[in-house]
Design brief:
Protein name: Tol-pal system protein YbgF
Largest sheet: none
Radius of gyration: 57 Å
Helix content: over 70%
Order of helices and strands: HHHHHHHHH
Shape: elongated
Structural class: mainly alpha
Number of helices: 9
Organism: candidate division WOR-3 bacterium
InterPro entries: CpoB_C, TPR-like_helical_dom_sf, TPR_rpt
Keywords: Coiled coil, TPR repeat
Mean pLDDT: 76
Pfam families: TPR_6
Number of strands: 0
Strand content: under 5%
Amino acid sequence: MDNQGEITVNQRLPGVIMEKLKRAGKFCQILKKIIPHINPSLPFISFLCIFSLGCLNRTRFNNFNWQMDSLRYYTTRIDSILNQHSKEIAQLRTDYYTKSEEIAEKLEMLNTRLSESEAQLTQIIERLSRGKKAITDSEDVSSVSPEARMIYESAYLNYVKGNYNEAVNGFKSYLKVAPESPLSDNALYWIGECYYSLGKRQDAVDTFNELLNKYPQSNKRPTALYKIGIIYEEAKDKNTAKTYFERVVKEFPNAPEASLAKERLNK
């Protein structure tokens, strides 16, 4: 019995083994069909993707830092440029106001001279209308010698040309040759005008005052008074200037200079 059972088992073993081998063979065949469709580089690609994600984040981080550094640099640069421009604008503003004041002063001086020229022109027109000799600016020059008259006219011509030093010398020469002539007060007045044009304000004031004291009947008195007022006004001495302007208005109310003096007083 025992031998028969052993034989039966032994006979059955090869069949079991063969069945399992068959099943294993089928599994291997299935694997053979699947394996060709699997990309052998898939694990590497997966690793590369994971690595790239890390690198990408690092690259973005580095780019962000670089952009921040650039932003800081350009911000600092712009601040520096703005500060420099602010300083330049402040300097330009200062220069502008300084130049504006200088221009205003020069315009005031030009306006004064224009007003004076207008007054003198009005005076000449009045004399022409009365048949007087405007060129010599005198009531009667018949007593003036030809030599003295030539000196006077030459000096006046230098004044008109702007040769003020030569004009001063010429008028002084005339006063030496004809100290008590009808043109003496005019010569003294033009000397004062020359000093004023040369910027010698005190010499001009002294000369005009000499004319006022020496020639009380001179037709140049209102102009001399007004001119002294202008000089003091330019020197910022408003009180003294006011005194002379008031004298013009009071002593010579009908003179052209009186209207100019009133304008100064009403400022």
